[in-house]
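Protein modeling request. Please complete all fields; requests missing the sequence field cannot be processed.
Requester role: graduate student
Desired output: 3D structure, token encoding
Chains: 1
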Amino acid sequence: MIYIALFRGLNVGGSHKIKMADLVAFLNRQGGEKTKHYIQSGNLVFHSDEQVHDLAQRLEPAFEKEFGFSSQIILRTLPELEAAHTAYPFDREGREQKFMMTGFARQNPNTDALAVLEVLLAEGELVAQSGNEFFFYYGNGSARSKVANLNFEKKIGTALTVRNRRTISKLIEMAADF
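Delivered output (178 residues):
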């Protein structure tokens, strides 16, 4: 099975710095095969015969033991990532791709998660949900957005890691080459 691992909080704001070569080596030692990374923020594509639940349960404690801090690891299969990319509802002419983001939930969010996020939107911001994926458009950028800088775990009941459309497209392209 081809997996995409999205590590939360690596190499952000000068903290939790990890070289991607070290992260690739870690994943390969954990049974990943043909592991590749994209940019420096913890996006890995790899092959494993292990089931997603077992893999997720095993990777996080092993990561913390090896690197000395925790990072929530959100796994998606290639078909799941492709489905999330296709489902993005705000890709329209006149909108900048750099403001188009998809949030990947670690587990099922609270049933009122979308309503909670909608209340926090500023002018020019949009949010939608499909299962465990949340779609954002930050029309004025994400720097000052209440939603972009939210503690998702506290507000919607699950961790969320967010990637832009360009990153998701590249990860799909890399995974399709397996």
